[in-house]
Design a protein that fits this description.
The complex is a heterodimer of chains A (264) and B (206). Helices cover 33% and strands 27% of the residues of chain A. Chain A contains ten helices and twelve strands. In chain A, a hairpin with a 2-residue loop joins strand 2 and strand 3. The longest helix of chain A has 11 residues. Chain A starts with a strand and ends in a 10-residue tail after the last helix. Chain B has one domain: Class I glutamine amidotransferase (GATase) domain (Rossmann fold), CATH 3.40.50.880. Chain B is built from six helices and 13 strands. The two termini of chain B are 13 Å apart. The chains are: A alpha/beta (264), B alpha/beta (206).
């Protein structure tokens, strides 16, 4: 049976991994390669990097960074930030990434999902969504609205509708990133994660809020999410303690969650 | 020297990185002449069967590839779509493929499982050979696929995996090996298979 995945996700500014809370106040952690190699050795299942300033600085993604990481880790990794065209996507994939994450840009130009899926296959295109609980209304029936540009701009789009549209355009996976829970370490937003899992047939990745192993257990048993993004738990100094991938996997395997066991 | 076929829709860079990590001498190739010098051949694959077949035909490499592998028996490793195109036909965009093996490529049942399958899944060996030597039953490998192969000849099945039912996750026949999972992205378990394949090619040269 397919196992649930633990995904390490890193925000990168100028080749340094940084950590923000609710999309603000970034603090530097370490060089990208150092972090990538460490989590690979810890046997994380997958890695995601967001070049978080690429969009704002109107430049392409740092391809040298992608190449350096690709030489160090032999598990899948996804890259996002600053990707606008099919040719950007091609460069990132050729540099050694497996998948491309699109977010704000896909809201502005949904056709990029379709074009990317046609050119490289759906499995390459990850639709990442920033969602905020705004209460149920006629316009937002799920109660969650899509935001873009580092959660600063609200779009008036319903999160579940956008997820369904992304799937029909050809996205291969959806990341549901809760703006409210991001950086709080209080757990994933099970409500919207569950709603989106029920609305689409492609894999759904929960993101934002994981601070304890119990949060992973909850999202894997109470929703159909196939993966959880963890980052703070691995290294944030804002948490009372950090966890190794081994600890997390042993905890989950011990409670009957199907995970890839550690390779000894 | 192992030739990694470098075509537009492939992920040859990742395979090359994995070879470098394991100190395997390898080269990206795009022409029949370059291919002819190889002592082993890897056909990587991501994306669709149609895009892969189109890319291979664009390079004009399909005839020499078949000649080298089927007649000259050069060791061959196909990965993901590089497995699927070895069969006669893929349901994906109704694509005619290389046809080295009798059989078809089918899509996972969307009413039963999420498609694509993305993630680590368990591989159970049905054959023991030089390529999976030292690899325990129940090892986990990384999969990304919406389609799976259905060989007519069951004797070529090297491994099976469960995703809403059992499917063939690797085939082996003579000098030909091909996996549905991404050997180059399955951590140490995958790198070990890659090394075993390279050693095979080393042996063949002696």
């Amino acid at each position: 049976m397919l196992t649930k995945r633990l995904i390490a996700c890193f925000d990168v500014i100028n080749n340094m991994v940084t950590k923000a809370s609710q999309f603000q106040n970034n603090i530097d952690i370490e060089r990208v390669e150092t972090v990538a190699e460490r989590v690979y050795d810890m046997q994380i299942d997958e890695i995601v990097f967001y070049d978080i300033k690429a969009s704002a600085e109107k430049r392409g993604i740092d391809l040298d960074m992608v190449k350096r990481v690709a030489r160090l880790v032999f598990i899948p990794f996804t890259v996002g930030g600053g990707i606008k065209t099919i040719s950007d996507m091609y460069s990132v994939l050729k540099a050694g990434a497996e998948k491309i994450s699109v977010d704000s840009m896909a809201v502005r130009n949904p056709d990029i999902i379709n074009e990317g899926a046609k050119a490289f296959g759906s499995q390459c295109i990850v639709l990442s969504m920033q969602v905020k609980n705004v209460g149920v209304s006629e316009k937002i029936p799920s109660g969650y609205e899509i935001a873009i540009d580092g959660a600063r701009v609200f779009t008036g789009m319903d999160a579940v509708e956008w997820a369904k549209r992304g799937e029909s355009l050809g996205a291969g996976e959806i990341v549901v990133n809760s703006i409210d829970n991001d950086g709080t370490h209080g757990g994933y937003d099970l409500d919207i994660t569950g709603k989106i899992c029920r609305a689409v047939k492609i894999p759904v990745i929960a993101s934002g809020g994981a601070g304890k192993p119990e949060h992973l257990y909850d999202v894997f048993t109470k929703t159909e999410a196939t993966a959880g993004i963890i980052s703070s738990m691995l290294y944030s100094t804002r948490l009372p303690r950090n966890y190794s991938v081994e600890e997390l996997k042993e905890y989950l395997l011990g409670r009957g969650v199907n995970m890839r066991p550690m390779v000894r | 020297m192992i030739a990694i076929i470098d075509y537009k829709a492939g992920n040859s860079t990742s395979v090359e990185n994995a070879c470098k990590k394991m100190n395997i001498s390898s080269r990206l190739v795009q022409t029949p002449d370059e291919l002819a010098q190889a002592s082993g051949i890897i056909l990587p694959g991501v994306g669709s069967a149609r895009a892969t077949m189109d890319s291979l035909r664009e390079l004009g490499i399909t005839d020499s590839l078949s000649e080298l592998v089927l007649n000259k028996r050069v060791p061959f490793l196909g990965i993901c779509v590089g497995l699927q195109v070895l069969f006669e036909h893929s349901e994906e965009d109704d694509t005619d493929c290389l046809g080295w093996f009798k059989g078809r490529v089918r899509q996972f049942d969307r009413s039963k499982v999420r498609v694509p399958q993305i993630g680590w899944n368990r591989v159970d060996w049905r054959q023991s050979n030089a390529v999976n030597s030292g690899s325990a039953d129940g090892n986990y490998f990384y999969f990304v696929n919406s389609y799976y192969v259905v060989p007519e000849d069951e004797s070529i099945i090297m491994a099976v995996t469960d995703y809403g039912g059992e499917f063939v996750s690797m085939v082996a026949s003579g000098n030909i090996y091909a996996s549905q999972f991404h050997i180059e992205k399955s951590g140490t378990a995958g790198l070990k298979l890659l090394k075993n394949f390279a050693d095979l090619e080393e042996n063949a040269k002696c």
